[in-house]
What we know:
By secondary structure, this protein is mostly helical.
Amino acid sequence: MxxxxxxxxxxxxxxxxxxxxxxxxQEDAYTYMxxxxxxxxxxxxxxxxxxxxxxxxxxxxxxxxxxxxxTFALNNFLDEILFDHIAAMYNGVVPEFFRERVGYFLRNLxxxxxxxxxxxxxxxxxxxxxLRRFAINTTAGIGGIFDVSTDLDIPYKREDFGxxxxxxxxxxxxxxxxxxxxxxxxxxTIGRIGDYGFDPVNWWAFFDDNKAIYSYTRTGVQxxxxxxxxxxxxxxxxxxxxxxxxxFRAWYTExxxxxxxxxxxxxxxxxxxxxxxxxxx
Length: 281
């Protein structure tokens, strides 16, 4: 009975968070800021990067700024009274070695999502690399807790459906701040729906009350892991910014743009040999 109730609540939250643009939960807000950094290690921002992100930027696409600022203030309050303390405790109590193992394990679970997006973007070489990474790390890496593939020169490359939509030419749309979870935009919010559907763990757990707890637990650990990894950066930005809201908006927007630009560059480099062959003909 309780499992059925929890499943109903989860379904309601999923619909609210993933289908309503103005609200939305943030399981991926901080992880969407990351590119390919090492998991389980608290990230830092250099003085140069901090100065760059604090500089005034052109007007962002933010028609919901009033609502977003209210949500940002709520998130900041919850961070200060609860989430930051939990993340700091996690970093302080759990040794870095074990945090890395957790991060690698979670990253390995996400490789099928990366693979699906590689294929949808037409990046077959990346798809092959992702499949090899998943096979190697799941076996030789003991379920993914060790990143053997990177040592074999098969590095992790972050992909998600938001980036896939960007590669298809979809604009990012208005900036959004999600309750509890933080920065996003309309395209990335829609992208989360796709990533949810690509995740085999969700398919394995969602239709079975006895397995749903594993999906809930993983989501909670993902949020904790992302919060803990970004704790230092988040604190630096809040302390050094005159307008933290605008700073977070600029930071998130630029990091997502950099990932989209990376994908576009890789696509052009992949297509270039074919174009040269066509010229020879």
